[in-house]
Design goal:
Helix content is about 75%, strand content about 0%. Helix 1 packs across helix 16 and helix 4 packs across helix 6. It is built from 23 helices and two strands. By secondary structure, the protein is mostly helical. The chain has a two-stranded antiparallel sheet with strand order 1-2. It has one domain.
């Protein structure tokens, strides 16, 4: 026990390591807030600068950037309706309406506190349950990831107001966009129409910036003369009563985020989506309807995506399998420093495991400090006149899109998606499901192929897999219930069951 505490204290007692964690967290927040600059990109660049550093110094900086970057995407999601990262899509749905009512400061303060809470839950799970959760994650097969993807696509219906059909259509459009490029199995062009520019696929960040940033700018042209809303920034730190009110929701969302984060290849975006859907289904009397700026819709995804940070470290450190794209980069950094993540890591180098736990804890504390500062400056963004703000949004969107691959074609895609998103918004379609479909589509495709190969291309064997395994059976039942709950007969069936229960 004393030895473990000593390993944890390494990150807390060295002033230089504390400075690196603080610098990484601060930088990550503002990198994550810029659409087009991802946490994965920042971590990859850091590795090239830190490969000659001591391993503790490199990990201290990377842990800070990781935590700060995941949180940072919520800032622009709330203020401009442009998620800095896919994990902030659900945050934009509820946060932007709050900013339009002048409550951006309070919304950012609430997301900061709940993100930190979720971060601590994920770190605690990493410290206490790493071996158990990693063994559970290892039980997931390709068919289970396929089911998770399908459930994720169907969940977009719950993000699309009252119309499940519109949400499913938008999600399917996103899957179609995600399918463009080289086939992962045959390496043949798919939906490329002979264009070499499409062989590499369409970057989802270009689609995300177009559908959210440019589309919102075009919609705002209709209200160009509307005066800017003065933001209330007299209260940034949430009331204790609000924290207590949302405690159990945040705890449940953090649990979802930790488990989903521990599943290899998932990450904070799916965790935030599932937590948002859980909040929407479980909240009986929200203060406002979901989609119009309810705080429950802010708490759940923000707690979940930061909890997923700790969860994503579990398979990386115990199995050598990345939980998401960022931990895949971190695995590369560990190999560069001569370390081998996997089952023997806790045996051979336990100090490294506990140092990472200590660095993540310190980064989460700095996240609370930096997250609650600079809000007054950030909220000035939405108080700018729209005649200034809209051109600025479009210019920043173009710069952020070009920065992904230094490819002007991506900017053209971004503008096209902005126009498509404008018409979708005009006719009542939400654009969030499109981005989620773009992200989940390739994962569904590759796991479907693997599951079919395992079934030897036999459709009967393929379908039998979904009910022959406990995990697959639970996910299949959840999928069926989800489909039934969206049919017109479900309210009638529920009322009949309620009447029978009352009569008995």
């Amino acid at each position: 026990m004393l030895e473990t505490l000593g390993f944890l204290a390494i990150a807390w007692t060295d002033p230089w390591l504390i400075f690196l964690v603080a610098t990484g967290t601060f930088t990550g927040i503002y990198i994550g807030a810029i659409p087009g600059l991802s946490v994965t990109m920042a971590t990859s660049i850091l590795i090239s600068f830190t490969f000659k550093w001591d391993v503790n110094e490199a990990l201290a900086l990377i842990c800070g950037v990781f935590f700060g970057g995941v949180y940072g995407g919520s800032r622009t999601a709330i203020l401009l309706n442009i998620p800095g990262a896919p994990s902030a899509i659900a945050t934009a749905i509820e946060g932007y309406p709050l900013a339009k009512r002048g409550e951006a400061g309070e919304a950012i303060g609430l997301t900061t506190v709940m993100s930190v809470f979720g971060g601590f839950v994920g770190i605690l799970a990493l410290a206490l349950f790493a071996p158990v959760i990693s063994e559970f994650a290892l039980m997931f097969q390709s068919r289970d990831y396929l089911l998770l993807g399908v459930i994720g696509i169907l969940l977009v219906g719950t993000l699309s107001g009252e119309s499940f059909a519109k949400g499913a259509f938008a999600g399917a459009l996103g899957v179609l966009i995600g399918m463009v490029g080289l086939d992962p199995m045959t390496a043949e062009g798919r939906f490329t129409f002979g264009s070499i520019h499409l062989l590499g696929g369409i970057p989802y960040v270009a689609a995300m910036i177009g559908f959210f940033g440019v589309a919102e700018a075009l919609v705002q042209l209709h209200t160009l003369d509307t005066p800017a809303i003065k933001q209330k920034i007299d209260r940034i730190i949430p009331k204790f009563s609000d924290v207590k009110k949302y405690f159990w929701l945040a705890l449940r969302a953090s649990g979802i985020g930790t488990i989903i984060g521990a599943l290899p290849g998932t990450g904070g975006d799916i965790a935030a989506l599932l937590a948002y859907d859980d909040a929407k289904r479980s909240t009986k009397n929200p203060e406002r309807p979901f989609g119009t700026g309810t705080r429950e819709g802010l708490v759940a995804p923000e707690a979940a995506n930061n909890a997923a940070v700790g969860g994503a470290h579990i398979p990386m450190l115990t199995l050598g399998i990345p939980g998401d794209a960022v931990t895949a980069v971190i695995i590369g950094a560990l190999f560069i420093h001569g370390l081998k993540p996997g089952p023997l890591l806790l045996v051979d180098t336990p100090h490294l495991f506990w140092f990472i736990v200590g660095a993540l804890t310190l980064a989460n504390i700095f996240l609370l400090i930096f997250g609650l500062t600079g809000i007054r400056l950030f909220t000035k963004i939405v108080e700018c006149p729209k005649a200034v703000l809209i051109p600025l949004i479009i210019v920043l969107s173009a710069v952020g899109t070009y920065a992904i691959q230094n490819n002007p074609v991506d900017v053209y895609w971004m503008l096209l998606f902005g126009v498509v998103g404008y018409f979708m918004k005009t006719y009542g379609f939400q654009v969030g499901p499109v981005i989620l479909g773009t992200i989940l589509g390739p994962m569904m495709d590759s796991n479907y192929r693997r599951a079919m190969i395992r079934a030897r291309q036999d459709t009967g064997d393929f379908l039998w897999q979904f009910v022959s395994n406990p995990i697959s059976l639970i996910l299949t039942v959840a999928l069926v219930i989800m489909l039934l709950s969206q049919t017109p007969l479900w309210p009638k069936l529920r009322s009949v069951l309620t009447m029978r229960k009352d009569s008995s």
